[in-house]
Amino acid sequence: MTEKVKPPSLLIEKARIFARDHVVPQAEVWELDRAMAEMTLRKAVAAGFGGLLVAEKFKGSGASFSDTARVLETIAAGDLGFAFSLVVHNNLAASLSKDDAQRALHLERMLSGEKIGAFCLTEPDVGTDAAAISTRARRDGNGWVLNGAKAWVTNAARADIFCVYAQTDDAGGAAGIASFLVPRGTPGLTIESAYTLLGAHAMGTSGIVLKDVHVSEDMLFLPPGRGFKGAMAGIDLARVLLSAMCCGILGDALDKALGYAAGRQAFGQSTLAFQGLQWQLAEVATNLEAAKLLTYRAAALLDEGLSGTIAAAHAKKFSTRAAMGGVAACMQAMGAEGLRTKRPLSRHLAAAKVAEYLDGTTEVQNIVIARSLVREYSR
Ligand SMILES: Cc1cc2nc3c(=O)[nH]c(=O)nc-3n(C[C@H](O)[C@H](O)[C@H](O)COP(=O)(O)OP(=O)(O)OC[C@H]3O[C@@H](n4cnc5c(N)ncnc54)[C@H](O)[C@@H]3O)c2cc1C
């Protein structure tokens, strides 16, 4: 009996077509050229994928979290780095859309693809312990002056608007953190050369330096007291989306391995006829199924307005691991051919490793999960 499959929503089908026509054909080039996927990113935004989480009344897609996860799973199957670039832009567009003044100033151009956003929290000396950032913001007349350095800024290579988190209080701490919008070209803002990494170069990741950068009061986005909370506000969703993206690359790797093995002959038969290889891929399929279920469940909890913190941590941890091990297993099933860059598997493997750091490392997910276990047993 064949399983009944629910037809994908129009948005997900549109994402599949966009990935097929614009992401898949370019992905190897972005990686080999170590180039940010700027034009395709602007095209994706203009096609309606830049305001997935922006309400329809503000001209966004108003998509549910579940549909957003499926859209990103679909696009990541083409290139995870590209999908993450899009997520960073989407997150900023969604937060700006909730603020009347910022919405009026920036949203239209962020939804048209004219302005690409970047999120700048991490610093050269501060990653996981984000409340310890040292970039400083000081009041200056009717504006602010920013000094410091940010590291690992996705989209930095081509972004037009940088959302910079900075400490306003000499005493430090989360309560003093505020966020500021700094347009590209602002005097004192330097964008460093894009990092050369294991993979995911489509993200155009680099450091930025802020030296006496003056911004007017209307560029203060989240004031002290709200900045750090704002940075952490979407973290559960961000983890669900990364989990979905890992499902995307794992599904594509499995598909490619099955297709290749079906046509590859050894010892007088297709390599897919060997039970050893079938079982290797069956393990991948089971992990993919589990990763999808964890992801969709966490997304559904968020859609219902319930806490998705633990579910998102489980999903992100499981899916990144499943992708790391599973993509490697799929490469193995393809023999040496799996290593070639014209096949997407080496790109997916590098992306899976990168995903282990994004939006909280695997260790951070364990902190979240362990805290909930300990809390339950210390009552
Ligand atoms: C390609 C890429 C793009 C990125 N894009 C962005 C971006 O757009 N904006 C942004 O702000 N950041 C971005 N990041 C940064 C990312 O969020 C950080 O890498 C991440 O938060 C981890 O920080 P870190 O790399 O400095 O590791 P560190 O904080 O230095 O940690 C080092 C190791 O120690 C572990 N560790 C730390 N604390 C604990 C603890 N309490 N218990 C157990 N283990 C612990 C970590 O898990 C890790 O394994 C990006 C990173 C990458 C790789």
Structural notes for this entry:
With 379 residues, the chain is an alpha+beta fold. The chain has three domains: 10-115, Acyl-CoA dehydrogenase/oxidase, N-terminal domain (Butyryl-Coa Dehydrogenase, subunit A, domain 1, Orthogonal Bundle), CATH 1.10.540; 119-224, Butyryl-CoA Dehydrogenase, subunit A, domain 2 (Beta Barrel); 234-377, Butyryl-CoA Dehydrogenase, subunit A, domain 3, CATH 1.20.140.10. The chain is 52% helix and 15% strand. It contains eleven helices and ten strands. The strands form three sheets. The protein has a four-stranded mixed beta sheet, covered by helices on one side. A four-stranded antiparallel beta sheet has the order 2-3-7-6, with no helix packed on it. The chain has a two-stranded antiparallel sheet with strand order 9-10. Strand 2 and strand 3 form a beta hairpin. Helix 7 runs antiparallel to helix 8 and helix 7 (235-263) runs parallel beside helix 9 (309-333). The model has no long low-confidence stretch (mean pLDDT 96). The chain binds flavin-adenine dinucleotide.
